[in-house]
Specification:
Helix content: over 70%
Number of domains: 1
Number of helices: 2
Number of strands: 0
Radius of gyration: 15 Å
């Protein structure tokens, strides 16, 4: 339980980076899916 709380704290420390990375990964997946469906 303590480990999970520590991980959460670490995420809170730099939320902008994590959210940006998540969004980038999502966009990347979306793009690849769209391009593959077009082929």
């Amino acid at each position: 339980m303590a480990k999970a709380q520590d991980a959460r704290k670490e995420k809170k420390k730099e939320p902008t980076k994590t959210t940006k990375e998540k969004k980038a990964a999502k966009d990347e997946k979306k793009k690849s899916r769209e391009s593959s469906s077009e082929l």
